Amino acid sequence: EAQVTQNPRYLITVTGKKLTVTCSQNMNHEYMSWYRQDPGLGLRQIYYSMNVEVTDKGDVPEGYKVSRKEKRNFPLILESPSPNQTSLYFCASSFPTGGRQPQHFGDGTRLSIL
Amino acid sequence: SQQGEEDPQALSIQEGENATMNCSYKTSINNLQWYRQNSGRGLVHLILIRSNEREKHSGRLRVTLDTSKKSSSLLITASRAADTASYFCATDVMNRDDKIIFGKGTRLHILP
Q1: Contacts of B72 (CB under 8 A, 6+ apart)
Q2: CB-based contact (8 Å) between B45 and chain A?
Q3: Which residues of A touch B98 (CB under 8 A)?
Q4: What is the pLDDT of residue B2?
């Protein structure tokens, strides 16, 4: 089954404790992206990747890191999480480009930073 | 940056009625997409319409695109309880293969 898998689905943690949210897709998609969703603000893009070893900043990249060492995986790293990063996060993938093909979304990761 | 803006922000209708949501955007596009999000879940792609198309259908969904007005509408006919969700439009950016911009969404509630 074609899918985008995020882990964990829920996480409560404390300020400053490094965390990683994993994202994996099994569709051989080149394009992958991370979004955060906050009430009243819609989806905002954090980082995206056009292919392996190619990443770029989205609209709200501050406080986040990503890597794309393999085509299927695109982890989101919060080196020193802060309460303003409490949000619902989505990973998405598409073939071949970001804006011109349907995006396939994971089920989301709800992060609470205390 | 927000490109697409949906209107209305929220909509409640009776089951069986038609629901219409609108999306306006600011810059030239190659295509526009509509997505549905059930509460707390990931977005699901509904339909993509290209800039040279004016109307597209998929089951009970009808999407129109007016590039001169930079607007699109999503019509759901004969609504059902299962259509209760948030609906988002998303646009690409001309000459930018990497960019997709989502609006803030319309919350649709179908009343029994």
Answers
A1: B22, B23, B25, B32, B34, B49, B63, B64, B65, B66, B89
A2: yes
A3: 31, 48, 50, 56, 97-99
A4: 47
How many interface pairs between A and B have CB atoms less than 8 angstroms apart?
Answer: 70
- Tell me the nearest-neighbour CA distance from B27 into chain A, angstroms: 14
Contacts of A90 in chain B (CB under 8 A): 42-43
Specify the pLDDT at position B7.
Answer: 81
pLDDT category of residue B47 using cuts at 50, 70 and 90: very high
Residue A10 confidence (pLDDT): 96
pLDDT at A97: 67
Residue A86 and residue A36 in contact, taking contact as beta carbons nearer than 8 Å: no
CA dihedral A39, B36, A96, A111 (to 10 degrees): 30
Is the pLDDT at B1 greater than 70? The verdict is no
DSSP string, A38-52: ETTTEEEEEEEEEET
